[in-house]
Structures are given as C-alpha cells and as structure tokens.
Design brief:
alpha+beta; Glutamine Phosphoribosylpyrophosphate, subunit 1, domain 1; four-stranded antiparallel sheet; binds aspartic acid
Length: 305
C-alpha cells in the first residue's frame, strides 16, 4: 500500500493549442490548481476538499471549458455540469445545466453534503446551491469572446460541433489523502453548440466521475455521449476490482470508447498508489503531484516522472 497523498488533474483532452500564450495559460492554471490541492493535502486535508480546490482553480481560469470560459450551447448560453464523489462511503453529488454559478463544483459538493439526492439540474440546482451559500453570478460574466467566436465558427456549414478549438477543455481532479481516502471531481461547459438541456458524462456518476476507496478514483474527458454509453469510469472500477492494473484498466475502458467511435482520456489513481493519465488524442492538459515530489504538468504526450 502506497503511503502519502497524491493528486492528479486534467484540463481536457483534444488538440494541442496552436497559440503559445494559450498553452502557457493552460500550464500555469494546472500548476496553480496542483498547488491549491497539494497544499490542502499537505496540511492534513481530505481528498474531496483537495479535488474540489483544484477544480475550483481550473473553473476560474477562462482558458478551460468549465466555469468562466465554458463553451456555449446552440442558444449561445453557458450551461455547466459538475460532479464530485468521495470514496469512503461512495457519497456523490452533481449538478447539471446550471447557468448562474461561477463554481459548479461547489454546488456539486453541497449536493453531496446534503445527501438527499445525487443529481440536481437547472433552476432547481441553482436555487439549492444558492441556499447552501454558493455564490451566484450574472451568466454573461462567464462568457468569453473566444467562446462566442468558437460558437460562430461551429455554426458555419461543414463544421462539426465538438469541444475542439485551441483552448482547454473539461477539468477534473482525483486525489488520495494521507488517510488513504480517494475522491474525484469533474466540471465542464460540455460541447460547443450542444442542445440546451444536454447533460454530460461529467455530471453522471460512473460515467465521467467515480471514486471508491476499495478500488480507484476516475475523472474523464472526451465525447460525453460515448463515455456515458460505455459507463466509462465504472468500467475502470470493475476492472481494477477484478485485479487488472490501473493503466490497463483505463486503457481497456478507453478502447471501448474508441470502439464506439469516441476519443478522449482520463486521470485515475487507485488505493495502492498507481496513477494513470491515458489519452488517445494529440494532447491532454494534465498534472500530478505526489507527497514529497514536485508537481508536474504537461499538454503533449510524454511520460510523467
Ligand atoms: N466530456 C465532456 C462532455 O461531453 C467534454 C469533454 O470532456 O471534452 O461534455
């Protein structure tokens, strides 16, 4: 059994940013997110708090597709999803299609804390989040000029809608704390030009987000419909439980996604200390830090130290 804390994060899978400034902003967002989560873990904080803290930083960075900087739906609006899960008792919380929250991940954590339901959507989710103390913002303040242009481009004939673009994507974190508890958090604006009301894999427990102390924690990124149809994160869990090493378990689940014509990646860590960050597209913004080692971030394929 591995000792010490660990935290892995992602900022979406897709193409390599063509713009060096965007790449720098993504890397610096990843570093700040790792530091925020690692600082909590180093001071004895829990895995869930660390995962939420890291995702919160990434939601604030407009370069990623979550919180401020989320992609726009076909009606030109931000609609965000987020989920959290803690591995000790498999408690989970999620929100879908929220528009007025700067930090959907905080709303998801409040749903978990409350414990009555697992997923809340739309105005009901917002009203609940506000009553729990999550801050509301003007939805327009979450819209960036880059995402407006991106939607315009996606509307041009012959253009496929999708995450695409040179910016970052969906964000997520998986953590193991000093007591060995696991947690996962994922937050997304979804897909460019999606139908209003569409719900992503990120918000669905067992699809884009999962944690169980007995097995592993997973946060996925990619074409959500296919990650839902393969019940991706739970497929990783089932394989790990059956004794498959974590990297192979992730690769197997990703192969199923590919088999249905999808692509993407995930970050995962298990109860024994393994960490995997596979992806089958040109790049995945990602980072990892383990207790006693410096943090590491990357966009392009290269092995972590
Ligand atoms: N999985 C997200 C969604 O389908 C998008 C992504 O991760 O790129 O909304």
């Amino acid at each position: 059994m591995a000792r010490g804390f660990a935290l892995a994060i992602h900022g979406g899978a897709g193409g390599l940013p063509r713009d060096a400034r965007v790449a720098r902003e993504m890397e610096s967002g990843l570093r700040v997110a790792l530091e925020a989560g690692a600082a909590l873990l180093a001071s004895g904080g829990g895995a869930l708090d660390a995962a939420v803290a890291a995702v919160r930083v990434l939601e604030s960075a407009p370069v990623f597709n979550a919180g401020r900087g989320s992609v726009l739906s076909a009606s030109g609006q931000v609609e965000m999803d987020a989920a959290v899960m803690e591995g000790e008792k498999r408690r989970a919380g999620a929100v879908a299609c929220v528009r007025r929250l700067e930090h959907p991940v905080e709303a998801a954590r409040e749903v978990l804390r409350d414990g009555r339901h697992v997923v809340l959507s739309g105005e009901g989710a917002e009203a609940f989040a506000l009553s729990a103390g999550v801050r509301a913002v003007d939805p327009d303040s979450l819209v960036t000029p880059f995402r407006r242009d991106q939607l315009e481009r996606a509307r041009m004939p012959g253009t496929e809608s999708g995450e695409g673009g040179p910016g970052g994507g969906t964000v997520g974190a998986v953590a193991r704390d000093g007591d060995g508890h696991l947690a996962a958090a994922t937050s997304t604006g979804g897909l460019v030009g999606k139908r209003p009301g569409r719900v992503s894999d990120s918000a669905l427990i067992g699809c884009g987000t999962w944690a169980d102390d007995a097995s592993c924690a997973v946060s996925a990124t990619g074409q959500g419909e296919i990650f839902i149809r393969t019940v991706f994160a739970h497929a990783v869990d089932v394989a790990v439980r059956a004794g498959v090493p974590l990297p192979e378990a992730c690769a197997g689940a990703l192969a199923e996604v590919e088999g249905l014509g999808g692509s993407g990646g995930c970050i995962a860590l298990d109860a024994r200390g393994a960490i995997a960050m596979p992806f089958d597209v040109p790049a995945m913004a990602r980072g990892v830090v383990r207790e006693g080692s410096p943090g590491w971030v990357a966009l392009a394929p290269e092995d972590p130290p």
